[in-house]
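Complex 298.
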Amino acid sequence: EELRIFAPATVANLSCGFDVLGCCLENVGDEMLIRKNDLREIRITKITGQELPLESDRNVAGVAVQALLKEARSTQGFDIEIDKKIKAGSGIGSSAASSAGAVYAVNKLLGEPFSKNELIKFAMEGERLASGNAHADNVAPALLGGFSLVKSYEPLEVLKLPSPPELRMVILHPLIEIKTRDSRAVIRQNVSLQKAIFQWGNLAALVSSLYTEDYALLGRSLKDEIIEPFRSILIPHFDKLKAIALENGALGFGISGSGPSVFAMCKGEENAENVRGKLEGFYADKNIAFELHLSKIN
Ligand code: HSE
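Predicted structure with L-homoserine bound:
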C-alpha cells in the first residue's frame, strides 16, 4: 500500500500575522511517496533535490510521523521518499511541506484515525526540529489549504479562512539561505502598545477582507511594523522591491515566512504577471540570483 502526494509550499505571517496566519500555494511544492513496510520502522529511503538527513529522527518528516504513530499507538512501519522542489531555507515552508505531507499520507494509509486539523500538532513536531520552535503557520495551511489562522497555541486551535478567488501570489526568492532559527533571533521580544494596536487592527481587517472579498481592504491590511523592520535588512533591496510591487498595482508586499523569499499579493493573473516581470527585471539588472513563482492560493 502506497500513496503519492503533492506537498504544497506555504507563505506564513502575511505581514501582520506573525506566527498565526499563513496560506497555501497551489502549484509550488514537493512530491512524496509513502509506502507501508513490514519492519515497524520509519525509513526515509530517498531524498532528491536537496541534501537533507536520511535518519528518521533527524528528518522533519520522520519526526512528525513518529509523533502521529505514538498517539495512534501504532507500530506500523513506513518508507518515505521525498522529491524536494522547495529549497530549504527559502521561506516558503520547505520543512512544513515535508512534515505536513508525511503525516497526511500516513494518516490516509492508516485509515484516517485523525482529522486534518488533528494532524497539525504532529506536523508541528517537524517544525520544532527544523527551527527550534513549533509554529503552525506553515503546516496548518499546508494541511487545510487556503488561508489558516492559529487562534491560539495553548490549547492549539486553528481556523480555516476563505480564500478570495482572484488572489495571486508572486514569490521572489533571492538565492541566499536564511535559517528560520537565525531570523527569529533578530526579532525583539517586546512590543509597544502602540505597535500592538496597529498590528491587531490590521490582522482583524485582513481576516474580515477574506470573508467579504474586499481586495482593497486586504491590501491596506498587509502591513507589519513589528517584524519586517528587522528582518527586511537581511533581504537584498527589500525597500526597493516593495516600492516596485506597490507602484505596479500589487495589493501588498512583505516577507514570506522568515525570508529570504518575499511575496507580492495581487488581484488577478494579469496584474500578477506584470508585477512578476518588474521584480524579475530589477533583480536581473542587479545581477542577483533568484527564483520566481506565480501561484493561486488554494
Ligand atoms: N512564523 C514563522 C517565522 C514562520 O516567521 O519565524 C517560519 O517560516
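The longest helix spans residues 193-212.
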